[in-house]
Amino acid sequence: MGRAVTVATCALNQWALDFEGNLERILRSIGIAKSRGARYRLGPELEICGYGCSDHYYESDTLLHSFQVLAKLLESPATQDIICDVGMPVLHRNVRYNCRVIFLNKKILLIRPKISLANAGNYRELRWFTPWNKARHVEEYFLPTIIQEVTGQETVPFGDAVLATKDTCLGAEICEELWAPNSPHIEMGLDGVEIFTNSSGSHHVLRKAHARVDLVNSATAKNGGIYVLANQKGCDGDRLYYDGCAMISVNGETVAQGSQFSLDDVEVLVATLDLEDVRSYRAEISSRNLAASKVSPYPRVKVNFALSCSDDVAVPTCMPIQWRHHSPEEEISLGPACWLWDYLRRSKQAGFLLPLSGGIDSSATACIVYSMCHQVCLAVKNGNADVLADARRIVNDETYVPEDPREFCKRIFTTCYMASENSSQDTCNRAKLLAEQIGSYHINLNIDAAVKAIVGIFSMVTGRTPHFSVYGGSSRENLALQNVQARIRMVLAYLFAQLTLWTRGMPGGLLVLGSANVDESLRGYLTKYDCSSADINPIGGISKTDLKNFIQYCIENFQLTALRSIMSAPPTAELEPLVDGQVAQTDEADMGMTYAELSIYGKLRKIAKAGPYSMFCKLINMWKEICTPREVASKVKHFFRMYSINRHKMTTLTPSYHAENYSPDDNRFDLRPFLYNTTWSWQFRCIDKQVNALYFLHGFTFKALAT
């Protein structure tokens, strides 16, 4: 037999429960793979139904429609003479499994259930599926009638097995199994499997891509082999953006890299690889060969098919490449932009509306929309017919071609500066200038009349008129008056989103964008049902620090000079009266902590799983050069008081793009109570005891630091 095998993997923009669209994209990927000479095609996890079906997995309809799509795939001429590996849920003996269904020429070769389920962070696979716990065990699976009628098979192998073709041996992993400490590829490789496949549903997190690449390359560095990874891409209906990065690795080196962010619904990677490279690589690893002599064998499903040709000596094979990683600023520019595009086109709305305050957060959100417009124009320029069709439908013009990002932005993006008597002219000018530079349709309005009307109703009913603290009012009055302004802005945002296009003689409505960052949400520094309440929020999972760096990136790469003054201005809500025409209120003073401190608190609370006492213990060492233990204790207590008082706001948090592993998203990522004992009496007493003990034991050291 030959030695050069040609395999294909792909990244597909699948959509939960969009069986028709998912089928079309799968068939398109198979057609591309075949046209490039591939003899094996791998697709993403659960690609038939879409990964994010959630509790729809409980429904028998989801299983039924998945098998109906599988029947269409089996019948299609496109799937002939190529091994196809697709993902779908399968019910076996009344237990639901997350499976790979591998077939060739209208015959199912193997149904391979997932062994290690993802059940942390955003993943809840154990809620819907059961792991296959029978290692190296295969059972008979009785096919439903609609599949029997196509394949002529009554039963097929179901379980933990590998495929033995005429020229090599393939073994499957599914997503989480690559990340598990006892990954199947380890013993499969020892048992002679030469090609490992992994179908993933892996979402984007800032600075995560390198971890996935390192895992894939390390999978074959010690054991040799070919590793083929497929992944979903795009927004399939919730807060996550699946970031593609399909790849192929040989003996620890990447030979093919897919894009991480792209508006292409179907991306296929094809590579031709030399099996003898694997065999010679393994030959000299004596420790591997000794371990292989003792490994328990996997059941092998024999396949009368070859991934190579008999005469392939002159066939060129792929060489190692250097993986190109995006910077965090590029990730922010591209990931949320692609997510917004998917949400816009799939929701069938006509664009976005953003309350643009002239501050960093709303400006960063505006820049992400502008980046999306750049990506759309670039995709159309590169011949993407799907993007062109979507753009024409969104702007309601069948002849339209988006060529200029600013012009496209004018059609689909409305920004709105909502001034009050507490707003400065500086922020108004900043918002207006940024809107001009990105091309958005910009509106200036004043909310004072609405605020006075609302407060007037309260005064008429109660006979009392609240005042700001600078005019002698209490803190309760001060906060209530700030909240009225903030909530009126939310109401007006939705009114203008629904009717702005109507006033311009254009059809459709706009999606309202929120712009609260992850740190403000963690601290609860936002008004419940203010402009943080929106349809979606592209920056809700991004820290203030990263947003500032992103703003600098936009200045340099998009030439948005208006951002310079926005960067240099202190963040402010502008909800309290001005002093001599200047802003007196600042975010960090209001919060009683800096944004840099908030990021640290967030990472310790979520990623390090630190409660108040553990956080204090970590910070007295981290901050020993800048704070005394008593100061650290005060900061930690203040954070946890504010966090717990405001936790209820997370229950109504606008759905946000997930980008940080310390996100406080209450939907499924960060499950916590929203009614706390905010005194934390026991926890804070433990901190106080530790502070006293430290001063008793090391008093002179800390006194020196204090001075």
From TrEMBL:
Enzyme class: ligase
Pathway where it operates: Cofactor biosynthesis; NAD(+) biosynthesis; NAD(+) from deamido-NAD(+) (L-Gln route): step 1/1
CDD domains: GAT_Gln-NAD-synth, NAD_synthase
Entry GO CC: cytosol
EC number: 6.3.5.1
Domain CN hydrolase: 5-275
Keyword terms of this UniProt record: ATP-binding, Ligase, NAD, Nucleotide-binding
Subunit structure: Homohexamer.
HAMAP family with a match to the protein in the record: NadE_glutamine_dep (MF_02090)
Protein name stated in the entry: Glutamine-dependent NAD(+) synthetase
Organism: Pluvianellus socialis (Magellanic plover)
